[in-house]
TrEMBL record:
The lineage of its organism: Bacteria, Bacillati, Actinomycetota, Actinomycetes, Catenulisporales. This is Cellulose binding domain-containing protein. It holds the Pfam family CBM_2. SUPFAM superfamilies: Arabinanase/levansucrase/invertase (SSF75005), Carbohydrate-binding domain (SSF49384). Keywords: Glycosidase, Hydrolase, Signal. GO terms for molecular function: hydrolase activity, hydrolyzing O-glycosyl compounds; polysaccharide binding. The keyword Protease does not apply. InterPro entries: CBD2, CBM2/CBM3_carb-bd_dom_sf, CBM2_carb-bd_dom_sf, Glyco_hydro_43, Glyco_hydro_beta-prop_sf. Transmembrane segments: none annotated. Residues 1-46 form the signal peptide. Residues 154-203 are annotated as: Disordered. It comes from the Bacteria. Belongs to the glycosyl hydrolase 43 family. PANTHER family: GLYCOSYL HYDROLASE 43 FAMILY MEMBER, GLYCOSYL HYDROLASE FAMILY PROTEIN 43.
Amino acid sequence: MSGPTGRPVGRFGAAPPARRRTAVAIASVLVASGLATLTLTTTASAASGCQVSYTTSTWSGGFTANVSITNLGSPLTGWTLGFTLPGTESVGQGWSATFSQSGQNVTATNVSYNGTLGTNANTGIGFNGTYTGSTYPGDPTSFTLDGTTCTGAVATASATPSPTPTGASTPTPTPTPTESSGPSTSPSPSTSPSPTPSSGSAAATLQNDVFWKDTSGNPIYSQGGGVLKVGGTYYWYGAKYNGAVTYYDNPAAGKNSDVSFNAITCYSSTDLVHWKFEGDVMTASDVGGGSWVGRIGVAHNPNTGKYVLVSQLGSGLMFATAGTPTGRFALAGTQSSIGNVSTGMSGDQSVFVDDDGQAYLAFSNKNGRANLYVARLRPSDFLQVEPASNIYNSSSGGREGNIMFKHAGTYYFCSSDLHGWNASHTYCITSSKVDSSYSAEFVMQGTDADFSHVTQTGLAIAVNGSAGSFVVFGGDRWSDFAGNGIGYNQWLPVTFNGTTPTFHSLSQWNLDAAAGTWSVGAGNNYVLNPSIEADRVSQSTMAGWTGSANVGNHLGGHTGRWSMQEYSSSGYTADIYQNISLPDGTYTLSAWIKSSGGQKSANLLARNFGGSELDRSISQPIGGWTQVSIPGITVTDGTIQVGVACDANAGNWVYADDFDLVKTG
């Protein structure tokens, strides 16, 4: 994932001499007509020079814009950015700034945590927008910071005072911030701010639930792969499937089944957040055309000095070598069976490299996948998988997406349910030995409420730094083939209490790879399973939520496939909620709503947070997806309960999707 997202980066002014960044957060939400808008006002100093980078990711009728602002002049204690949107473009949901639009003129004013902007300091903001017509109208051509045009130079005269954001009327949000009509598959609570390091530290902000971009602003295509660290650089290898390109180009069209192989891609990074595209290290023509290629890993063989790539190829395995981590890799051999394996070959697999440099294949058997194995790659060259050790046999079903990692001397072998492309709990076994004496299976703590952040196990990265250590869980969200939301790669921190791992399901978090530390991002959405995508089939009880009768998931969501439903053919009451532990502070709750109207009462609500219950009525007819928000929720008890409740007549219904609970102060 990279700082820039979407279309090629457009910069207004030269690069600053030094670049520091601040963590981003979802700060304000434009709400449905008649509801309050949270607005934070500040006193701004005059800017004397600035640079702006504006990048977009577009689809039919909508776009996401990420804006990076660098102050080249004197320190600011408050700021306002101004720009003009072309054509029919309109601002929808925003983050890290308070947005106001009058005609095509837009102002974005800082929020509480990013108002101070020192000389050469940088901050990121963004928004989802819509447009009419068949063609994206384009990007803004000019920006001002506190009235000073951003040219990349420091003005010699005093800057014009900041324009005052218009406040005569509250902007009305578009029904869907990421799609012009119909069920959307680009989640509103999962906006795409640039992943930027926190100011004054080496931490970088990792944003989940979005399509990641490389450092050139192009989509990252890397699924079913692995990461190899060489010196201070991480190299990430994975498969690019043609169906992934199709889904990225138009997620509103839904999932597809095009698993045809395009290339094995390679990206490099020093911080595990900003990824440079190094190129396609193998393509379909290198492996003989249209066979299945996937579950890829790379290891460095100390005897030959070669980098060895191992992947499934059709019904067997292939091995390829290169002299450098970035290839290209040349096919060096294949293998049609593995000794001691019940069905002769691997199902899902990954490559694990131990501390001594020896590489292993961690896998389940083909067909059924109930038996788990670890097998050494031939030490002399890593071009053969030696006979395997059967480390565990699952009695509760097959296991796939097998990964392996090591922390503090303990080996962890983790897998997903046999759910095809869909999300799953994460199941683990542990041992002090790489290929024997594994424990009984257990579900990793933290993966139950939203099925591992709506992913299945994909890869693992041990992060060992100067101040700590943890593991990055690289979840594969096969949204191209499952239709379960936005983003292919969801990476989360895993911490340890002794040998017990805990998964932290976060939409945004800060990662310092050098220090080996992490923290929750300022823009994290604290609701688990907010888009109701964890359950792959119709359910009356949804993962992460507690409900009464007359609730369940509904096929047809604002994003992805599913939404939450309250309905009965006779008069009824319904209440569905989630209890959340979170830091004290001020929050905004929002959700996307449809409603039949006519209920005796129906509300989006926040309660049990240390203050009086807050709600917004949704008992009026709401025919199209509309975002409803409750700003200014002051949490003082470290907990909150959020949800939807109604007292309804026969046939009344409410659909809710894409819940968002973000700290604003």
